[in-house]
Amino acid sequence: MGLIDTKHKYWKARSEKCAAALEKKGFHAVCCADETAAREEVIRIAGQPETVGFGGSQTTRVLGLVEYFRDQGCQIFDHWVEGLSKEESSKVRRAQLMSDVFLASANALTMDGCIINLDGFGNRVSASIYGPKKIILVVSANKITNTVEEGINRARQVAAPLNYMEKERNTPCAITGECIGCQMPRKECRVLTIIEGVPKGSPDYHIVIVAKDIGF
Ligand code: SF4
């Protein structure tokens, strides 16, 4: 077996164990081999929504889902659209909370089926808990950790520094790759959530796991 096949076997095995744990907790979880399969699965699960909200997520963008749902005539609530004023951005974030379908990723999933997120404004974690009729998180297998502690550490020490590096922000972690728990006014790591089971008001909750290393 070659290196790529072995890695795929590893990601697949962890994805399947994590998906089984999520299912036990009441989520609908599915494993996909790659981005194409994940995109098809999201489109199938979403059905025909009138409105689609997007949380800050590279993974959903990599899958081209904003463009897909826009082409379908859906109203898109995406605060990453360039040129939005502060007021417009805030309006879009609030609209995400009431969308038919909310699409985002997570900073970590644990092998026993918890979802961990570290957010700045809180719109992503809010809409990932309550409000939208349907919630779909697309999460790549490199975000699966063995424990909640490892998941929180991943959110702080991997996802946050990479996010700031990507946005070319002047935070300590963007320079060194290490979170030092700074108090910079512009920091966007302010709200930490651990979802331990399907929130009671959000029964239509889907997790699509991609058995690859694609997001951060
Ligand atoms: S607390 Fe500061 S150093 Fe840590 S991830 Fe946030 S911005 Fe980076």
Summarize the structure.
The chain is built from eight helices and ten strands.
Overview of this protein structure:
The protein has 216 residues and is of the alpha/beta class. The protein has one domain (3-144, 191-210): 3-Layer(aba) Sandwich (Rossmann fold), CATH 3.40.50. The protein is built from 8 helices and 10 strands. It has helices at residues 3-24, 35-46, 58-62, 65-71, 86-96, 123-127, 148-166, 172-176, and strands spanning 28-32, 51-54, 75-78, 101-104, 108-110, 115-119, 134-140, 144-145, 191-195, 205-210. A 6-stranded parallel beta sheet has the order 1-10-7-4-2-3, with helices on both faces. Strands 8-5-6-9 form a 4-stranded mixed beta sheet, sandwiched between helices. Residues 156, 160-161, 164, 171-173, 179-182, 184, 187, 189 line the site of iron/sulfur cluster (SF4).
Blueprint of the fold:
Layout: H1 3-24, E1 28-32, H2 35-46, E2 51-54, H3 58-62, H4 65-71, E3 75-78, H5 86-96, E4 101-104, E5 108-110, E6 115-119, H6 123-127, E7 134-140, E8 144-145, H7 148-166, H8 172-176, E9 191-195, E10 205-210
Parallel strand pairs: 1-10, 2-3, 2-4, 4-7, 5-8, 7-10
Antiparallel strand pairs: 5-6, 6-9
This protein binds iron/sulfur cluster.
Termini separation = 27 Å
Can you tell me the residue ranges where pLDDT is under 50 for at least 5 consecutive residues?
Answer: none
Spatial strand sequence of the major β-sheet: 1-10-7-4-2-3
Main sheet: strands, sense, barrel: 6 strands, parallel
| Strand tally | 10
Mean pLDDT: 95
In CATH terms, the superfamily is NagB/RpiA/CoA transferase-like
Order of helices and strands: HEHEHHEHEEEHEEHHEE
Strand content: 15-25%
Which small-molecule species are bound to the chains here?
Answer: iron/sulfur cluster
CATH topology: Rossmann fold
The CATH architecture category equals: 3-Layer(aba) Sandwich
Radius of gyration: 17 Å
> Roughly what percent helix?
25-40%
Number of domains: 1
Tertiary shape: globular
Number of helical elements: 8
CATH class: Alpha Beta
* Alpha-beta content class: alpha/beta
